[in-house]
Amino acid sequence: xxxxxxxxxxxxxxxMGGYAxxxxxxxxxxxxxxxxxxxxxxxxxxxxxxxxKRRLIVRNEVPANKHD
Amino acid sequence: xxQWFFKLGSPKWFYELSGKWLPWLxxxxxxxxxxxxxxxxxxxxxxxxxxxxxxxxYIHVPFASISLAFFPLMAVAGTITLVWRMKLADMVAKTxxxxxxxxxxxxxISGSIWGSDIWGxxxxxxxxxxxxxxxxxxxVGVISLRSALEDTDAAAKACAVLSIVGCINVFxxxxxxxxxxxxxxxxxxxxxxxxxxNGPEIWVPLVIMIVAVYLFFAVSLILSTRNEIxxxxxxxxxxxxxxxxx
Amino acid sequence: MLxxxxxxxxxxxxILFRHLSFELGEGEVLQVQGSNGSGKTTLLRILCGLNEGYxxxxxxxxxxxxxxxxxxxxxxxxxxxxxxxxxxxxxLENLRWSCSLQQQVSDGAILAxxxxxxxxxxxxxxxxxxxxxxxxxxxxxxxxxxPARLWILDEPFTTLDSDGVAQLENLLRQHAQSGGSxxxxxHHKLSLSPLEILSLD
Amino acid sequence: MLxxxxxxxxxxxxILFRHLSFELGEGEVLQVQGSNGSGKTTLLRILCGLNEGYxxxxxxxxxxxxxxxxxxxxxxxxxxxxxxxxxxxxxLENLRWSCSLQQQVSDGAILAxxxxxxxxxxxxxxxxxxxxxxxxxxxxxxxxxxPARLWILDEPFTTLDSDGVAQLENLLRQHAQSGGSxxxxxHHKLSLSPLEILSLD
Amino acid sequence: MTExxxxxxxxxxxxxxxxxxxxxxxxxxxINPFMxxxxxxxxxxxxxxxxxxxxxxxxxxVLWISALLAAMLSMDNLYRADxxxxxxxxxxLSPHPLYFMVLAKNISHWLVSGLPVVLASPLIAYMLNLxxxxxxxxxxxxxxxxxxxxxLGSIGVALTVGLGSRGxxxxxxxxxMSVPVLIAxxxxxxxxxxxxxxxAYLAILGAMLLASITLAPLASAAALRISIN
Amino acid sequence: MTExxxxxxxxxxxxxxxxxxxxxxxxxxxINPFMxxxxxxxxxxxxxxxxxxxxxxxxxxVLWISALLAAMLSMDNLYRADxxxxxxxxxxLSPHPLYFMVLAKNISHWLVSGLPVVLASPLIAYMLNLxxxxxxxxxxxxxxxxxxxxxLGSIGVALTVGLGSRGxxxxxxxxxMSVPVLIAxxxxxxxxxxxxxxxAYLAILGAMLLASITLAPLASAAALRISIN
Lengths: 68, 246, 201, 201, 229, 229
Ligand code: HEM
Ligand SMILES: Nc1ncnc2c1ncn2[C@@H]1O[C@H](COP(=O)(O)OP(=O)(O)OP(=O)(O)O)[C@@H](O)[C@H]1O
Ligand SMILES: Nc1ncnc2c1ncn2[C@@H]1O[C@H](COP(=O)(O)OP(=O)(O)OP(=O)(O)O)[C@@H](O)[C@H]1O
Ligand SMILES: [Mg+2]
Ligand SMILES: [Mg+2]
Hints:
The complex is a heterohexamer, with one copy of chain A, one copy of chain B, two copies of chain C and two copies of chain E. Chain A has a domain at 32-60. Chain A is mainly alpha-helical. Chain A has helices spanning 10-15, 20-59. Chain C is built from seven helices and nine strands. In chain C, the strands form two sheets. Chain C has a five-stranded parallel sheet with strand order 6-7-8-3-9, with helices on both faces. Chain C has a four-stranded antiparallel sheet with strand order 2-1-4-5, with no helix packed on it. The model of chain C has no long low-confidence stretch (mean pLDDT 90). Chain E has one domain. Chain E has helices spanning 8-26, 28-47, 52-74, 77-85, 87-92, 98-127, 135-160, 169-177, 179-193, 199-228. Classes of the chains: A mainly alpha, B mainly alpha, C alpha/beta, E mainly alpha. The interface between E and F is large, with 48 and 48 residues. Bound molecules: protoporphyrin IX containing FE, adenosine-5'-triphosphate (ATP) (2 copies) and magnesium ion (2 copies). One adenosine-5'-triphosphate sits between chains D (11-12, 16, 34, 36-42) and C (128-134, 159, 161).
């Protein structure tokens, strides 16, 4: 397993054979995109629930059960 | 069969089911991603020409290939919206459009970063790149139409029409642009990169990454769709009960 | 001829009406009443098929409208808030087109109708030079020409002067007498004798 | 406060009015009457300075308006056929802007005015979701906020329901009592006691 | 009563005649797309280079792009006025298939705003020093291509006709869709210059035209029904 | 009563804030000019030639022409909605000099539709293979030039706001007026490429900007008064 490792040191790994900038930007962008796309929907969900609850309390309106 | 179909269309049903599935999807996604990325970064041998930039492929190709799925997805959702008036379909279509724009953008960006090494320039007006760019424009068009139309129902139907027309167009554009000018890697029959001589040490991690990114797409689509459901169904009984218990 | 059954419409989380049922027979005039924002315009547009955000059933001579759209449209005349008068064309040209969507008309009939509605002398002026009430009159002149059985009129009295109001009321009465039906919204008090009222408040 | 002297206006070769003179004093309500196309809207726009195709003299407290435009505009409130309500903005945002062209206003005052005009609950809806009458009400809410002395209102009663009509009449009465003046066109019969009428027919 | 009911063909003709009449009365509708085409085409010698040699090389592309922009930007008129004054509602409530009504409006619009551009193209081609061998190719491709642009644009306008803010959204939606037409058109001109036969390209453009005549008005009609809601 | 009267500065701010708010609410007003610019710029490689060498030669002109078209075509929003809903009459009847009100609307419009185009220009410049030496020249000339285009366009819109048929008439009126800006802008870029100093051109564009800030809103104001008549 370790024999298949392509880099012999951490420094070499970060240098990526001279392509550090390109390779790492792509991977960093990917990770950024990845986390942002999971994080924002989760935050948004919390916001929505909070907002809907607030409305529920403030108005205490009678829900019209049109759906379901 | 039809019953199942319409049950599937019920936002409530989807909300509950997706709630059950999400942990599993997230687990599978994380596992595959960790394996895929480690493999891609540490174990894939450098290409004899491209050197270590080959590692960009493990991001670029999954994103590029999934980007092509968005318009068909939105067109199918649009057809369901128009024909069966299924609300869930439109919620999926609505969340898919911005997600698609982001995926496309990432495919474009990763591709052009890759290209800066391989082709010596960040951008060329090649068929595939151009059609990708145009697809990005079309997606932005759908998004801006959605945001311009204030009425949810009208927006749903209008975007459905635009997605269907756009889907036909994406194929026409792809065909015509390829015809116009092609430099980009041709797609190989097995869907794999580069020479067919490439061994499994190249394509296995690629397949893993592709599956992982598809799972990621599914997860984020489900997450945003669930938000959309909560908002649009806020007045229904089950959401109110959900809120009361939450 | 037109029946609505358990109509329900909600916009922006607000229920405009629910369980609304009515029947409009031949020779009847039905005035839809309600305060501002109560959903009169919405109701009329739903009945015409211009708005599909509703639940319930609408029938035309007992059959669902969706199954006989052309038939229904052929006997419908709708005049909404926006009256459908092109500003560049003259009243004559406007009517020539809008009437010819439903039937063949001669210029003579159109000119007569315009004159009847007090637009003699304006037949050849472009409509943007007409006053608000005159434009309304151009649209209303279609009532004299078009043989449609069902009239759906959304606030046709706005901007009309008192002569115009009287004349239009007259017209509604005649149409009902000859077996047609009218669905009209207005905040005016109509002085028609067999007048049914549907209140949305 | 506002005097017109020998006004004459012709449009499209047709003389709308000639030798038209009137005086509008403080505390007076003047209703401009006339059949459709008689030139009411044209007259009001002339008085506001929005239309310059006329002859004759218009004076504001004895001086020609052209010499004191800003002064005149500062005490004028005009609401025309098109009410000046942006469809994208909410009633609150609309009024915040249109009032702030003339004076500083607090949100509280605006909200109170909107509530007074039956728009409680709609303060934050975008105006395109409002019905025709509700949009009219948004515009009319300015009457409650703006301290302008002279109101020029072109058919403010159209699309208002009967409550709205009563409320607006009330408002005109109060404004006149507190020394303001009103110039209004309408085909309604106004039930105000000191009401002067200017007929254009 | 029913005997006086009008045939769809007659309603089609009436709508076509009305739209042509409006265009005739407004004059601007006829002159503007054409003028816009001329002006945009003249911006290029100014903005890029007045050198005839270089102009000649880019002329075909410039002409096609100008025609494309003129076609897209003239679309806004197509349903807007009718929407605002309520005529569109009347059209939707007519007892005839909307397909034909939409087609009538599209045809009238192309006659008024597309055809003049096509007819003027040889003039601009001359001014931009396009090689004379390809005038015919340019003319024919524009003749077949601009109706496609109109039909595609019509879908975009129908989708956006209810919007308060119009402006560029139409262009943003429809310009990417019309790229295939642009490619076919400019390739045809370029390849003819290189000696290739024109017919293949004309066949492609003709196929596009046929497809869009049958399908696009359906999409426009659906879009109108949605927008008016 | 008089003490609560508002200052012109406050009315100016209120108008600016309102217009920005409307743009923010509509989003499209912000995104579309920018997208239009991108899309039009993309048409050129497709329509003319994807060859980087040739693209580089025409890039400056293409960028300027696209920016010009985006600026002109986004203008339509400027007074249209206000005219149709009557807000414009309210603006004309405000007791403040119309000059400032018009200026506020112009500034807001440029911020929303001109600035994004300027900011995006280097990206497109790269894609069109513009020589890197002239990026700065391009950016600066666009930064100074697009406000002039907005101000000039504003006069055109003000003149045509009352017309039923809009669409291209605006472009037909204002494009010829904006040719000097186009010339100054593209010359600046080209001459910088040939080694000439940029400052002279920036001075010219700056002078145009100053002149149009002082004069154009006056013309727009006058035009609005005429249109509303
Ligand atoms: C902005 C630039 C680029 C864009 C927009 C782009 C876009 C695409 C697209 C749309 C695909 C199709 C994916 C699929 O069919 O599943 C793809 C695949 C691929 N791209 Fe790129 N690409 C870009 C640059 C590059 C570069 C510079 C390279 C490296 C030489 C590259 C190598 C590949 C490979 C190897 C594939 C897989 C081919 C296949 O099996 O389908 N791409 N790219
Ligand atoms: N833009 C115009 N160009 C030429 N003539 C016009 C124009 N606008 C109005 N007119 C003429 O002026 C006359 C009066 O119009 P005006 O709008 O003032 O009438 P009005 O009294 O307000 O009528 P209504 O009660 O219908 O509102 C009209 O008959 C019309 O012929
Ligand atoms: N496009 C829309 N989107 C969302 N809600 C709307 C829309 N149009 C109308 N509404 C809502 O529907 C309600 C009814 O509107 P409608 O136009 O039917 O009223 P109306 O009874 O005709 O009133 P009016 O007497 O003022 O004409 C309004 O209060 C408004 O809140
Ligand atoms: Mg109404
Ligand atoms: Mg009037």
